[in-house]
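Severity: low
Component: inverse-folding endpoint
Summary: output formatting inconsistent between runs
Steps to reproduce: submit the following structure tokens with default settings.
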């Protein structure tokens, strides 16, 4: 049986999808299972989430409070922006 997944991307309020448009090679609206969160609240987005992938955001703390499993995306950058850097067991 084939599972279908949906990827919802939520941008930081200071760095929106419009900022990404000039650097992106493909329009995200063309991807069949990718949706950009526009106009919905963080709480609404988290209610739909089965897992939360984050880079350096306090959204991870909100997801954790909702009991949502976390995946930290490590960019390899020397500075660590992970708000849960002392909790390796949660990731």
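Observed output (run 2 of 3):
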């Amino acid at each position: 049986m084939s599972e279908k997944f949906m990827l919802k991307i939520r941008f930081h309020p200071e760095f929106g999808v419009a900022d990404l448009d000039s650097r992106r090679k493909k329009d995200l609206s063309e991807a069949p299972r990718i949706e950009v969160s526009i106009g919905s609240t963080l709480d609404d987005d988290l209610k739909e989430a089965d897992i939360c992938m984050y880079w350096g955001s306090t959204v991870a703390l909100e997801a954790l409070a909702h009991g949502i499993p976390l995946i930290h995306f490590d960019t390899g950058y020397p500075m660590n922006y992970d708000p849960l850097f002392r909790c390796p067991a949660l990731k």
